[in-house]
Design a protein that fits this description.
This protein is α+β, with helices and mostly antiparallel strands. Helices cover 22% and strands 15% of the residues. A hairpin with a 4-residue loop joins strand 8 (237-242) and strand 9 (247-251).
Length: 290
């Protein structure tokens, strides 16, 4: 006669299964995150290579961050640094935009970060001091010129050779969610020292109280720059493209504005009322000697 399991035996088996699940589930989660991290690193590696090829064909100039749909709507971008790099990648799809008759958007494929919370244009951002927008912004210190395709900005295109630290200066990385910049935006990454730790004095350019404290996926607003800051989605780390084209994983709190974000020139034009950032590197300044 076949003997059935007793209640105690069944409970023991269930307990063993529960213990194994408690051990294995975190391992599976870590493996999934590691796979996303690797895919994200691969995406940024290809985007970084595309930026190097763009430089080769544009007289060593980085692309603009974005161009407007119409001259009277400088916030309605119909072509961004993504579309300008897309010919060198050909991965993803081009879809019609809503802000221009001949516009398109490069989305999906390589342009989708595997950890971004929704399918759109929220995964990667380009340094807005190195990839300046081709329109007037308040921080550019100029008046908006409404002549068709006229002088939109007093900030010129930026040259790779003008960057002081090529191998350590960030140009692109995973960024936070910015619905206001989602479909028609330029996917910019904030380069201003104020947001990277200068909102207190003395500034803290590394550590948890630096720009790393803005690591979240909240909506963009004047008081919440998180949407335009690096996002540390992979075990408190982010993948970063540097100005020489190489890609590296950076731990949260270690990114230093003085040495890894500041490209060697001010975010503002020379004649801007905001002035420049040389005082930060003067003797006694928070970036002195760096």
């Amino acid at each position: 006669m076949k003997k059935a399991f007793t209640l105690i035996e069944l409970l023991v088996v269930i307990a063993i299964i529960a213990i194994l699940a408690a051990i294995l589930f975190p391992v599976f989660a870590q493996a999934k995150e590691a796979a996303k991290k690797a895919a994200d690193l691969s995406n940024l590696k290809q985007i970084g290579l595309a930026s190097m090829m763009y430089l080769d064909s544009s007289d060593d100039q980085f692309s603009r961050g974005g161009y407007p749909a119409v001259v009277t709507n400088p916030d309605g971008y119909w072509i961004t640094w993504r579309e300008l790099h897309d010919p060198y990648i050909k991965n993803g799809r081009q879809v019609n935009a809503t802000s221009g008759p001949n516009s398109f958007q490069s989305v999906g494929g390589i342009w989708r970060s595997p950890a971004e919370p929704s399918n759109g244009r929220r995964g990667y951002g380009a340094h807005n001091a190195i990839f300046p927008l081709a329109t007037y912004k308040w921080w550019q210190g100029s008046q908006y010129d409404e002549r068709p395709w006229g002088n939109y900005s007093s900030i010129p295109s930026r040259s790779q050779t003008a960057i002081e630290r090529l191998s350590s200066t960030l140009i692109m990385t995973t960024q936070g969610v910015a619905p206001n910049w989602n479909n028609s935006g330029a996917n910019v990454l904030e380069g201003d020292w104020w947001f990277h730790g200068g909102s207190q004095w003395p500034p803290k350019f590394t550590g948890p109280e630096s720009g790393a404290k803005y690591d979240n996926d909240q909506n963009y607003s004047a008081t919440n720059p998180a949407a335009m800051m690096p996002r540390y989605r992979y075990s408190q780390s982010a993948n970063v493209v540097f100005a020489d084209g190489h890609v590296k994983n950076v731990k949260k709190g270690t990114l230093n504005w003085c040495t890894q974000v500041y490209p060697g020139w001010s975010h503002f034009p020379v004649n801007a009322p905001q002035g420049d950032w040389n005082f930060l590197f003067a003797p006694g300044g928070p970036c002195a000697g760096q």
